[in-house]
């Protein structure tokens, strides 16, 4: 199948735009490849330090230097459900490595924070920047140069993008990402959302709310809604960095363990010591990036990736833009309905056909590049398979289903839920922002209403409880960008705004902050740049100004003359101390614009 014209044209534009930085990046990893494997050239004291704590078998293998050594970079902690299953992975990986004549060592850990725990709390102001901390931590872990390949254990929001950025800085090393999988299904997501709205209206108490949340988030694994964490996992598979079919297998099952062992073996089979060398810097190219965007759009994934994908691509010398995402969205149909874009969860998506079905359908419609490198040494057609458990407990594969088992959850490319991916870029006299429309009713795509300005989500919640928002309104929540307070998610805005919308009012949100990957049905122009802390036009809006948001035409305008107005300044002193925020002053000062990835790192 020939590649769709829009997919091809956007890819060619990205390649042309990236030519110089991509060449610099490839030259850098080629220089590192020429020195590989570096550990063989380490001094005797250096390498002795590196294997001092190993057992006799591993110590002998590392001492002789002929067997491949695998780095394990882990985001394990036992507070977060998504990362708790990783506790047992290193032992499995070491055992799998020894079985094929290699060794494996935990090279280092990276932090893993949960936006679900920090939502609405001051710790959330560290969340976005934790991505760049994770990238830095990954570089520290690999800096010992003892390794021939690496496996990365990470799942959630900022963890996988941070691991990718760090892995790409060691682009000469093969990289295999190993997921932990989603928790089993609990309280349906729409029921949980209803309880949240009732709580926002004061109709149920905290005990009922806590019980609903506990029934939703009830065991090991990722949250089952399709937020940033599960969008991450989809991306790793469609970009060829997971084993096929491995993404949405539940934790602590024989199949999940078989996937983990095979992932370790695969990483050891693609080092420079063998005949199938697959460094991540070569796999992660312009076509892989476009495939990732297509997957995000086809599944209605998290808006957080409008920043993460750009930052990740930049780490490989690839210049991806919001305009690229918007153009691709017009060509890619929405094929999945998973909460918040529907009632199902990711377990239902997987049961309906999952990633194998999705990739086959997208390839068949010419919406993905098949001719890419993957960790499997095949093109992307090798990912149209389903992982299964063989009679001996090992991983085997079967063709993915050719027909969705539940068309309310997953459909083919020729019979999608909607013809576009449901993501658009809004431009106008307020700057640039993004909007996710895949879960917004069509009659809510255009909102024109007077502004009500807030400098925190707490202010908006207080106004809602006081009955001050019971009217058509565009809530403007500013000074929430990277330079202001680290760009926290404003997920707590969803219940009150959804209540207003259900009362039949015209409601929208405009903010230079983020919304959760689980945000949904309220029109929200987010990641607005330039941000208020940079003196952007959003800092000039006043209460009562008419704002028009048109998601179909891609425009966001304040219907007032801002030219004579001074940008309002906010006292951000309270955001600079407490919960570790004083340590992140450098990050706030140096953060890039949202449309450039909101990163502290300079482009290659």
Gyration radius from CA atoms, angstroms? 24 Å
Strand-residue proportion: 5-15%
Number of helices: 22
Spatial arrangement of strands, main beta sheet: 7-8-12-11-10-9-13-14
The biggest beta sheet, please?
A: 8 strands, mixed
Arithmetic mean of pLDDT: 94
What is the total tally of β strands? 14
Residue stretches low in confidence (pLDDT < 50, at least 5 long) are: none
Structural class: alpha/beta
Helix fraction by DSSP (H/I, runs of at least 4): 25-40%
Into how many domains do the coordinates divide? 2
Shape: globular
End-to-end gap: 34 Å
InterPro entries: 6-phosphgluc_deHydtase, Dihydro-acid_dehy_C, DiOHA_6PGluconate_deHydtase_CS, ILV_EDD_C, ILV_EDD_N, IlvD/EDD_N
Cofactor: [4Fe-4S] cluster
Domain Dihydroxy-acid/6-phosphogluconate dehydratase N-terminal: 68-380
Pfam families: ILV_EDD_C, ILVD_EDD_N
Structure, explained:
Helix 11 (about 230-240) packs across helix 14. The protein contains 22 helices and 14 strands. The model has no long low-confidence stretch (mean pLDDT about 95). The protein is an alpha/beta fold and about 600 residues long. It starts with a helix and ends in a 14-residue tail after the last helix.
Q: What layout of secondary structure does this protein have?
A:
Elements: H1 5-17, H2 19-34, H3 44-51, H4 56-64, E1 69-74, H5 89-99, E2 103-109, H6 115-118, H7 127-142, E3 149-153, H8 159-169, E4 175-178, H9 189-200, H10 206-216, H11 228-238, H12 254-269, H13 280-283, H14 286-299, H15 305-314, H16 322-331, H17 346-352, H18 354-364, E5 385-389, E6 395-399, E7 423-428, E8 431-436, E9 446-454, H19 457-465, E10 473-477, H20 482-485, H21 494-502, E11 507-511, E12 524-529, E13 546-550, E14 555-558, H22 585-590
Parallel strand pairs: 1-2, 1-3, 3-4, 9-10, 10-11, 11-12
Antiparallel strand pairs: 5-6, 7-8, 8-12, 9-13, 13-14
Helix pairs in contact: 1-16, 5-12, 7-8, 8-15, 9-10, 9-21, 11-14
